[in-house]
Write a structure and sequence with these properties.
Layout lengths: L1 E7 L8 H10 L8 E7 L4 E7 L12 E2 L5 E9 L2 H10 L13 H8 L9 E9 L4 E6 L8 E5 L2 E5 L2 H5 L10 H8 L14 E2 L4 E8 L2 E8 L16 H22 L6 E4 L4 H13 L5 E7 L7 H11 L2 E7 L1 H4 L2 H10 L7 H14 L4 E4 L3 H5 L3 H10 L5 H10 L16 H7 L7 H10 L5 H6 L5 H7 L11 H18 L1 H9 L4 E4 L4 H7 L4 H4 E2 L2 E2 L1 H6 L6 H4 L15 H14 L2 H7 L4 H13 L8 H24 L8
Parallel strand pairs: 13-14, 13-16, 14-15, 16-17
Antiparallel strand pairs: 1-3, 1-9, 2-3, 4-5, 5-6, 6-7, 7-11, 8-9, 8-10, 11-12, 18-19
């Protein structure tokens, strides 16, 4: 686990190239505090940097790594599982290794299989591979985008990095917030492949960027090498008892394997533990695989409606885990750490769960752990979110009925946040899916509240731009057409919010901010490729989400967890507590004085003043309501964008207490 960065400039490197690469690596120090290395090829204009967090091959994993003949050089961020078996197989074919690192397997695999080497990798990774003979740079991102990778490509240079700030640190790259991206951040949903900054792209999950040089100019193309592939609706297996029993057994076997390989490390491995069946299943499987009690880390909030610590404690006691509970208050969620998390995430967030997880990763690292196994991805694969259930009930032939009413009542607190209180539709998604998925509808409502806040200049620049259509247009229609509505909802979410939200400000970026690696076992591709073949009627059965997973894990889950309905893991919004509202207000005064809003230029200062005045006057502490949720979301996003604007001017991490 580490940070990677570099540049390829065919005209050659100047004398300042080593210093420029060092500056890029400096921005990634938190991703790799245990060592750093660089590879400079002045003749070909190549500079590659690597900051290392040592987890496997503690004393022999320095990167970048070149092959024996010097043809290829590689830098890897992430973990490649099954690497010992692959090394043995390659050794039988004559390969020789210089290190004990899992990353080194990329070089002989690329020699034997060309670009198809990626299909032989298992894990979470981002890779930069340069081939001198082919005059080719290949950037690769793992199947789900667990590990980040960004780039800026022009005819004269390709600059890349594990985080946007590394790309911005290159002297050839100018930092400017993109108005279109700002609009998307306000509505929470980014266009896949975009970032907050103009000209800087996010390599999409399951894609590689192939850059070749011809006549001193660079040309690149993104190639998809893996994707979720739900079967056509009529091709799903039946939902009879025999099929159900077979799938339950297969899910259990593949999840056991996925957890087992993620416990492989040369350092201690812990687990994140909330009150959901996902992290509890991970702990329930990890506990019997470990020789000593598993260390489990749990977040506790100061609001009963959002706190899961009590339920998590039952699981910890059932498995004999050594549980540590981190209690967080308003001061933790809305202090200096808020700005620090924006800096690390490089995007805005609607809920301070990201800040809570930043605090947790710091505590994990302080406890002597560099690695945790987590439960992210389960809801995406097994239909766990309430908006998936809503689409199943509305469009999947189930009918709203008593199950739909019960789901709506149980998730009442999330209306105005992840569930829309008023239905919305959009022709682009209606054409793509046959309906507008429920997951995007609340963000369409947020967009409606955002548009009146824009400045005249931003309105002019965005004239004619439809952000919802822009999102829909990036999704491959051939992966959606003819699919069951639940499959369409899960696929479109996975292509947008899984990578852009769950795995960024809810995952890698806040964990690696404190030099701590998270491993989401559910996103093992062997398990994922099975999950998409589970009939929708078994993913959500008789109104119960993740039914197959529940049955697979029934033996390790306490009864209360086995029967518990999915409850989204979120931090309490600011409108639930007077101290939290005061914390947001202090952040608004610090980061968004009127002159700063004017300088940023994205929003109309008068409109922002009116919004902030309404927010300050809105409701007493412990108030609720859909509008209060949405105003909290807008306040968080406005803060994030104005902090990002200042990050662009001076990319140094804000102080965090």
């Amino acid at each position: 686990m580490c940070g990677i960065c570099g540049s390829w400039e065919p005209e050659g490197l100047d004398d300042d190239a080593p210093a420029a690469l060092e500056a890029m690596m400096d921005t990634l120090e938190h991703r790799g505090p245990d060592g750093r290395g660089m590879h400079l090829d002045r003749e070909r204009g190549l500079a590659m940097g690597h900051t290392r967090l040592s987890i496997i091959g503690l004393d022999a994993g320095a990167q970048p790594i070149a092959d024996a003949c010097g043809r290829r050089v590689v830098s890897v961020n992430g973990e490649l599982y099954d690497y010992k078996r692959i090394r043995a197989e390659l050794a039988c074919d004559g390969a020789r290794f210089r290190t004990k690192s899992d990353s080194e397997i990329v070089l002989p695999l690329a020699e034997r299989h060309g670009h198809d080497f990626v299909h032989r990798l298992r894990g979470e990774f981002a890779i930069a591979l340069f081939d001198r003979e082919r005059r080719e740079l290949v950037l690769v991102r793992d199947r789900f985008g667990i590990k980040p990778l960004y780039y800026r490509l022009t005819p004269g240079a390709c600059v890349w990095g594990s985080e946007v700030k590394a790309v911005l640190a290159h002297p050839a790259v100018e930092a400017r917030l993109c108005p279109r991206a700002a609009l998307h951040q306000m509505m929470q949903v980014m266009v896949p492949g975009t970032t907050a900054f103009e000209g800087i792209r996010a390599l999409r999950p399951g894609h590689m960027l192939v850059v070749r040089e011809a006549g001193g100019r660079l040309e690149g193309r993104e190639v998809r090498w893996w994707d979720l592939d739900f079967p056509l609706a009529e091709e799903h297996a039946g939902a009879d008892d025999a099929t159900a029993a077979r799938l339950v057994a297969e899910v259990r076997d593949r999840l056991i394997d996925a957890v087992g390989v993620r416990l492989e490390a040369d350092v201690p491995v812990g687990c994140y533990l909330s009150g959901g069946i996902d992290s509890c299943s991970i702990l329930g499987l990890a506990a019997p695989m470990q020789q000593s009690p598993v260390k489990a880390f749990t977040i506790s909030f100061d609001h009963d409606g959002y706190d899961e610590a009590r339920i998590a404690r039952e699981m910890a006691e059932a498995t004999g885990a050594d549980q540590e509970v981190l209690s967080l208050t308003a001061a933790d969620l809305y202090g200096d750490s808020f700005a620090a998390v924006v800096w690390h995430a490089e995007r805005t967030f609607y809920n301070t769960l990201s800040v809570a997880k930043w605090h947790m990763s710091r505590r994990v690292r302080d406890a002597g752990f560099k690695v945790v196994v987590t439960g992210e991805g389960s809801d995406e694969l097994f239909g766990g979110y309430p908006f998936f259930k809503r689409d199943m009930f509305l469009h999947g032939g189930e009918g709203q009925g008593r199950h739909g009413a019960a789901m709506e009542a149980a998730n009442r607190a999330f209306r105005g946040a992840i569930l829309a209180e008023d239905g919305r539709s959009h022709p682009a998604f209606d054409e793509l899916c046959g309906f507008t998925p429920s997951w995007i509808q609340p963000w369409m409502l947020t967009l409606e509240r955002t548009l009146p806040l824009l400045s005249d200049d931003a309105r002019a620049e965005l004239d004619g731009y439809d952000p919802v259509a822009a999102i829909a247009e990036t999704i491959d229609p051939e992966r959606v057409r003819g699919r069951h509505p639940l499959d369409a909802a899960q696929y479109t979410w996975a292509k947008t919010m899984l990578e852009g939200q769950i795995l960024t400000w809810g995952g890698d970026r806040v964990d690696m901010a404190n030099s701590m690696e998270s491993r989401p076992a559910f996103l093992d591709h062997h398990l994922a490729e099975l999950a998409v073949r589970i009939p929708p009627e078994l993913r959500i059965r008789d109104g119960v989400e993740k039914w197959v997973l529940r049955e697979a894990m029934r033996g390790v889950l306490p009864e209360v967890l086995y029967r518990r309905e999915k409850f989204p893991f979120m931090a309490p919004p600011s409108h639930t507590d007077g101290a939290k509202r005061d914390g947001v207000d202090a952040l608004l005064r610090r980061w968004m004085p009127r002159e700063r809003v004017e300088d940023t230029g994205l929003f109309d200062p008068d409109a922002v003043d009116a919004f902030v005045a309404r927010w300050r006057a809105g409701g007493a502490a412990d108030g609720d309501g859909d509008g209060a949720n949405r105003d909290d979301i807008l306040a968080n996003h406005l803060l994030g964008l104005h902090i990002l604007d200042q990050v662009a001017e001076a990319p140094a991490v804000p102080a965090a207490g």
